[in-house]
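> call design_seq(struct)
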């Protein structure tokens, strides 16, 4: 809890400030070290911050999420099927080339194609409902300008290490175990570590993970913090 004294008012230390922001202490230290560029508040006595200053600080990832969300075109009929070019424009990209390739949102789109058919030349024609595109856009966090690739959402729930280590589970359960709020938020590194990866008739990936694999991913994540 914040501390109070007659001379300095409400103040918080590193642990309390990190808890207020919902981040680790190491993340807090990194933000403070980069305060010249991110606007993190200065300490008032060398060790503590004003509570109001911490409460008012906006995490860079939250700023970026709002920027990314604002860049998405949310007009039109939610059930209208749109092609890849329209999807790219909806997400704020100038061309399909910027959307495809190594862009992290492209695999998400491929997993949730709403309509797929072949053109007379044998090429795949994929279409998505506008609501699907909006849902995928909401599952990611933004970084930088809308014309760059953006990483997926970070975990919000509580990791779960219970159950049979060899049990194979689908994307929904994997997301829950890892603390993500939706299967579409699973990052590329998690998708790559699936123990089973099959492709359905429409090209959708059906991935499964052993619980032990997911626990290993949790360990890797904790080591990076």
């Amino acid at each position: 809890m914040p501390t109070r004294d007659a001379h300095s008012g409400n103040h918080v230390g590193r642990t309390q400030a990190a808890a207020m922001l919902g981040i680790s202490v190491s993340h807090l230290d990194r933000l403070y070290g980069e305060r010249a560029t991110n606007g993190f508040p200065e300490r008032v006595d060398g060790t503590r911050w004003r509570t109001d200053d911490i409460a008012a600080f906006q995490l860079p990832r939250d700023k970026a999420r709002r920027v990314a969300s604002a860049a998405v075109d949310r007009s039109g009929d939610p059930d209208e099927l749109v092609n890849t070019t329209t999807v790219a424009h909806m997400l704020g990209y100038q061309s399909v080339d910027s959307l495809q390739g190594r862009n992290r949102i492209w695999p998400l789109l491929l997993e949730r194609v709403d309509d797929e058919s072949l053109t007379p030349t044998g090429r795949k024609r994929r279409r998505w409902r506008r609501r699907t595109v909006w849902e995928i856009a909401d599952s990611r966090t933004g970084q930088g300008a809308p014309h760059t690739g953006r990483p997926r959402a970070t975990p919000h729930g509580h990791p779960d290490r219970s159950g049979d280590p060899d049990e194979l589970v689908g994307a929904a359960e994997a997301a829950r175990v890892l603390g993500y709020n939706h299967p579409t938020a699973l990052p590329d590194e998690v998708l790559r570590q699936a123990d089973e990866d099959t492709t359905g008739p429409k090209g959708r990936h059906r991935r499964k993970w052993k619980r032990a694999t997911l626990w290993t991913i949790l360990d890797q994540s904790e080591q990076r913090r």
